[in-house]
Amino acid sequence: MIDQSIKFDLDLIKRYDKAGPRYTSYPTALELHEGFGEADYRRHIERSNAAGGPLSLYFHIPFCDTVCFYCACNKIVTKNRAHAEPYLDNLCQEIALQGALFDKNRKVDQLHWGGGTPTFLSYGQMQRLMAVTRAHFNLHDDDSGQYSIEVDPRETNDRTIAQLRELGFNRISLGLQDFDAEVQKAVNRLQSREQTFAVLEAARKEGFRSTNIDLIYGLPLQTAETFARTLEQVLAYAPDRFSIFNYAHMPSRFKTQRQINEADLPSAALKLDILQMVGRKLTEAGYVYIGMDHFAKPDDELAVAQREGKLYRNFQGYSTHSDCDLIGLGITSIGRVGDAYIQNYKELDEYDKAISAGHLPVYKGVELDEDDKLRRTMITQLICHFDLTFSSIEQTFNIVFAEHFAPELENLEIMQTDGLLRMTADGIQVLPAGRLLIRNICMVFDKYLAIKQRQFSRVI
């Protein structure tokens, strides 16, 4: 059985803490370009239909009632709910356009609404969106699909949760970030314990099969002690999963972050103290480290998939369905169909113009070559399962691993000396001290990284 433990080595983390991708894809989204257009996407859909297999759908709902200063998502902040209606019209039209191109026999095994705040939509609007989706894609009717939604507890109540369950959702992720009152004021997200846990309890009552809590460390005014109090309060309700993200302060890229007082941000040393505390408390509570920012109960689907060698990673994070082509719907969403990544337009007016003309709203994309597919397979295996067997790569891609990746293997020698991994003639095994630094290990195999590294957040 796979060892899902981690080891917190402060010296190693300090030495390896540099900017790098999160590898929700390889190549990363930075490699998408405008030379890839609608005709290219249609060609990959045809190939995808010929290959068959299930589908995954991602819907981007960009609206938020208020702005959280730390947010780096593509969002539209408004209190006017009527602003969602024209966007919903276009989104439904895009569903029809895309649905017409995919084989109707292909089941939708996964579906996810993200944002923004998906529950910004009214119940009637959510009903309409799901009905249109069912009309154009082959959704499960027996609750066997993995249909998830991100919710803001400030925008959700018992009735909303019951409605979401009625619409077919069976997995839910709750945004929280931190309960400390001063931290909440500093990031403009005021959210009570009562709001949060009422939604969590309602989800369990309605039969949601998985509950996730999102937290962020590194926010202004946080300390290890205050964040520990937040974590202890959440642990008392024992969600199935935790996503605990490192706040990446990049105000030059994300304007809302300019409203954060940089003097209030915790030091790098303090962030490491918080991270160490988080790892200790969650493992003591019985959660296992999945990778990156994710912890789960041992019987959660993610933990089971990892032990069985079936875990995968896509633009929504860790996933249990590596066999699904991912279709992105709505502004800024990114899909993976066949051997291509595709992103929709990021701005409402461009999205509207394409949809109004009856075109797929393809903004840019990239077609993977054989080297991309080879490196993607390796990076996915490492970041999901913390090991890599050379023979499986050699058989799949007809290479001699030691010859093909001689420079990379040489670069890994120092990581082996530092105790991050173990290399043999058969493969690479990431050790407990290397799991928190898995991004660094994957970066060794990233041929695009050298010229793009400044555009990524730090790994810790």
UniProtKB/TrEMBL annotation:
Cofactor-binding details, from the entry: Binds 1 [4Fe-4S] cluster. The cluster is coordinated with 3 cysteines and an exchangeable S-adenosyl-L-methionine.
A UniProt-annotated Pfam family: HemN_C
GO molecular function: coproporphyrinogen dehydrogenase activity
Alphabetically ordered keywords of this record: 4Fe-4S, Cytoplasm, Iron, Iron-sulfur, Metal-binding, Oxidoreductase, Porphyrin biosynthesis, S-adenosyl-L-methionine
Ranges for domain Radical SAM core: 49-285
Cofactor dependency: [4Fe-4S] cluster
CDD domains assigned: Radical_SAM
Main enzyme class: oxidoreductase
Entry EC no(s): 1.3.98.3
Reactions that this protein is recorded to catalyse: coproporphyrinogen III + 2 S-adenosyl-L-methionine = protoporphyrinogen IX + 2 5'-deoxyadenosine + 2 L-methionine + 2 CO2
Annotated metabolic or biological route of this protein: Porphyrin-containing compound metabolism; protoporphyrin-IX biosynthesis; protoporphyrinogen-IX from coproporphyrinogen-III (AdoMet route): step 1/1
SUPFAM superfamilies according to UniProt: Radical SAM enzymes (SSF102114)
Assigned protein family: Belongs to the anaerobic coproporphyrinogen-III oxidase family.
Name of the protein described by the UniProt record: Coproporphyrinogen-III oxidase
Organism the protein comes from: Methylomonas rapida
